[in-house]
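Lab notebook, page 48
Experiment: co-folding of the full assembly
Goal: obtain a model of how the components sit together before planning crosslinking
Operator: M.T.
Materials (sequences as entered):
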Amino acid sequence: MAYQLYYWPGIQGRGEFVRLALEEAGAEYVDVARGRGGVGAMQRLMDGAGATHPPFAPPFLKDGEVLIAQTANILLYLGRRHGLAPRDEAGRLWAHQLQLTIADIVDEAHDTHHPIASALYYEDQREEARRRAADFIANRVPKYLGYFEGVIERNPRGDGYLIGRRVSYCDLSLFQLVAGLRYAFPRAMARLERGFPRIAALHDQIAARPNIADYLKSKRRIPFNEQGIFRHYPELDVAR
Amino acid sequence: MAYQLYYWPGIQGRGEFVRLALEEAGAEYVDVARGRGGVGAMQRLMDGAGATHPPFAPPFLKDGEVLIAQTANILLYLGRRHGLAPRDEAGRLWAHQLQLTIADIVDEAHDTHHPIASALYYEDQREEARRRAADFIANRVPKYLGYFEGVIERNPRGDGYLIGRRVSYCDLSLFQLVAGLRYAFPRAMARLERGFPRIAALHDQIAARPNIADYLKSKRRIPFNEQGIFRHYPELDVAR
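Observation: model returned without errors.
Model output:
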């Protein structure tokens, strides 16, 4: 039976990390809120009158009777089923640890344009966004990318992945992080990325995988836009 | 062999969620950076010249050869070993999902006093903190607490826990969240909590558990303070 993915229909957002794993795995899935049921179907599950495991927020995944929320948790589940993570416990925890660290920088990327409140418009927090984005670019992006660069470098199995000799959901997520940062901060990233050649190579390697390359060309890939997590506001893209 | 917990020695912070699980389990552990090795021992592991699985940030836990970082990931590991989470896969994922949702509000609580940059002093972002804290109290705390209240209410096994008939690490973390919010925002919480009686009852039930009660009275429990995640700045505690 096809997976049912529930996420906001107009953005890549956090749902994209799940979509990339499903696409790489060649798994059948329905992107529910982009179909006939729309956001209403998603909202009903969240309100969850009947659900014992109601999600706090999208994305969430339904696999038959199992309903799972929280992006990293969904990937923990999918990784095991589709060979997108190591099978042994230490390896699974390590993959999950990396994913949670990617989730942390994704949260911070979101807060560059919404440092005060998600419920307010960007225009109502633009000055604060300028300050936060400047710190993000100067301090946080280099710290996180330096960390992931080191993980790729020290992977004892080598071959340019974060973990072992095979692609994992963390590699897919790191690809998405880089794509998002490049979209949001093209000038800053052009400068910063020179310091992280292994990450840039991993990005290209993932983009070239047959299932991912097909997906990126398809209509299933929603373009980046200014409603998502990674938004391009030129005034926040400080090149220094 | 005793667990080795690595976390900043002067604050509860994210390490506290791990400490509470270890204390409830009656597990032997060394709080490494609070001992002779100090922060240096922690820093060496983070710099991780030799570590294949280097942490990005504390807390991290060493269990023999296994090194695990990310608070929720550590709890996933401990929950399984100490009966602090359901044993079946669906139950484990549900517990982890709740923990990740608690981690999200903890991040937001941190950002009430540091909305612009962790690296800046509070005093350098006080105005922004005022705006963010007001939104946190008005919108985010009620949304999260309403969610957890509903989870306790709809737990089919009842008995006041988040999951099933037994205490889980999520219950311990929800206790800590409530304790932290009460410390940071006493006036706001006095008003808000009336709407969430099951959460208040769970807090009291956890505080009264023998191992937790012993711990809270001990010197191992670092008092809340203004270096941690939950900080009491009266100007941010809007009662409305």
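Interpretation: Chain B has a mean pLDDT of 95.
Next step: discuss with group before ordering constructs.
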